[in-house]
Amino acid sequence: MPGFELFGDLERKEVNDVLDNGVLMRYGFDGMRNGHWKSKELETALQNTFQANHVQLVSSGTAAVSVALASAGVGAGDEVIMPCFTFVASFEAIMMLGAIPVLVDIDDTLGLDPEAVKAAITPKTKAVMVVQMCGGMANMSALLDICKSNNLLLVEDACQAIGGTYNGKPLGSIGDLGCFSFDFVKTITSGEGGAVVTNNEDYYTNADHYSDHGHDHVGNDRGAETHPFLGYNFRISELHAAVGLAQVRRLPEFIAIQKKNFNIIKEALSEIPEVTFRTVPEGGEESYAFLSFFLPDLEIATKVSSAFKENGVDACFHYFNNNWHYIRKWEHLKDMKSLFPISAEVKNGLKYLETKTFEKSDHYIARNISCLIKLSWTEEEVKARASKMVELIKACLA
Ligand SMILES: *Cc1c(COP(=O)(O)O)cnc(C)c1O
């Protein structure tokens, strides 16, 4: 991660196809487009990647989460259980629908804690949204069981985990609906873009219509199409899809590079007994987009994070230094700052944020450091980085 590091002729060729005929819109203009349907081609490529029956491209990962939930009928007043360690987009996407995000603890996978999910279920719960953080995954079999026995939808926000698998299945294709982002810093980038993945034909049809003003996409005359229901514009453009198409073909190559770089650093850090690694549930394989590890306590983690910073080793310490991934720094959401009035029902549903503590999550996040694994590093650079990290961690432990 991120795909923009390896950018070149393949991307340029796909974009030029689109520029040659000037049809930047994904629908219609059949006669003008010279056979170029980049969005459709990308959807087909992603169906193969995710081994899923249906893929609907949208304008961003945030849009993907919102469209996925809407397509399955999640709306006003419904509760959606989600982890307190995520990207703030997953919270926003629920709020956009007038639904209520119910934040719960994570465990040592850095994903949803199944026990916390169970404890948060109420008669209003409609869905569980698992967020596959930092290239890893939550305990999916436990979550699948919980959702099944409580008749809840399981939605996967797999924006950070493209290329990871669980029991051989691509992350994002395990729940009822999966969501991906192709924003500028993700493993596969199209500049901006996202995808909803599902095997459910009704959800797919809903996502297809909903993301384009409710258009039914029957026939080839947009003006004559009917609109079975309300929709909005969450479309991707052909230019973005063209870039994504070139990038997705390189996914296996990107994952292989990530894995190689990840393993060099992991092996080096394994020498230090005080360092432990994020748990990967049995049957799971990470996407290797990040290497996430734990230090013994907050004090040491703080020291290591500062030492990394001073020595040019970029790494995320979400507990202190990051405002958009962990509940601890979400003051604007805890204080409910909104440009427009929020319904009394949602306000009431979010009251728990005033008092709820997330001690179990603090226990992990306060000791966790996550390093982005880059695609452009040379082997020498990775090895130098790995030994620098070992040296700095040892000094902080001494
Ligand atoms: C990036 C990301 C998103 C949102 O994607 P955008 O395309 O930037 O809107 C949602 N969830 C997670 C976990 C992400 O990392």
Description:
Pfam families: DegT_DnrJ_EryC1 (PF01041). The modification N6-(pyridoxal phosphate)lysine is found at residue 186. With 398 residues, the chain is of the alpha/beta class. Helix content is 39%, strand content 14%. The protein has helices spanning 9-21, 38-50, 61-71, 88-96, 114-120, 140-149, 201-210, 238-248, 251-269, 298-310, 318-321, 331-334, 344-349, 359-365, 379-397, and strands spanning 54-58, 79-83, 100-104, 125-131, 153-157, 165-166, 169-170, 177-181, 194-198, 276-277, 284-285, 290-294, 368-372. The strands form three sheets. A seven-stranded mixed β-sheet has the order 1-9-8-5-4-2-3, sandwiched between helices. Strands 7-6-11 form a three-stranded antiparallel β-sheet, with no helix packed on it. Helix 9 runs parallel beside helix 15 (379-397). The longest helix is centred in the middle third of the chain and has 19 residues, at 251-269. The protein starts with 8 loop residues before the first helix and ends with a helix. The model has no long low-confidence stretch (mean pLDDT 96). Bound molecules: pyridoxal-5'-phosphate.
